[in-house]
Design brief:
The protein is an alpha+beta fold and 110 residues long. 34% of the residues lie in helices and 9% in strands. The strands form two sheets. It has a two-stranded antiparallel sheet. Strands 3-4 form a two-stranded antiparallel ribbon. It is flat, with a radius of gyration of 32 Å. 0% of the residues are buried.
């Protein structure tokens, strides 16, 4: 019985020492660098930045998306497993997809 108890204590001691060796002691050593703090609410915001993007940027971005990737498609989802309505026999099956066209009827997407 003494051997089992001695083995259990020795195993526990080895486990604690291995944990301290591999994971280190937390809180003893400070990390390098300066911790980040929020800006002072009483001081003037001299470090603030304003970024202004013109409509030309978004026109070029959307133009590239439509040319390179095709029109964006958004699949509609259904939250409940049971359909809330059923299609009538003469209706075509709906693909549940909304397609954003670049231009339709003389109106350009912007």
């Amino acid at each position: 019985m003494k051997r089992v108890l001695l083995g259990l204590v020795a195993g526990l001691l080895i486990g604690v020492l291995a944990t301290v060796y591999f994971f280190g002691r937390s809180g003893k050593a400070s990390l390098p660098g300066t911790p980040l703090r929020p800006p002072d609410a009483t001081a003037a915001n001299a470090g603030s930045v304003s970024v202004i993007l013109e409509e030309k940027f978004f026109d070029a971005l959307l133009g590239t998306i439509f040319q390179q990737l095709g029109p964006p498609q958004l699949k509609l989802g259904q939250l409940s497993s049971e359909p809330t309505f059923q299609t009538i026999a003469f209706q075509d099956a709906c693909s549940n997809v909304v397609i954003l066209n670049a231009e339709s009827g003389g109106v350009k997407t912007g």
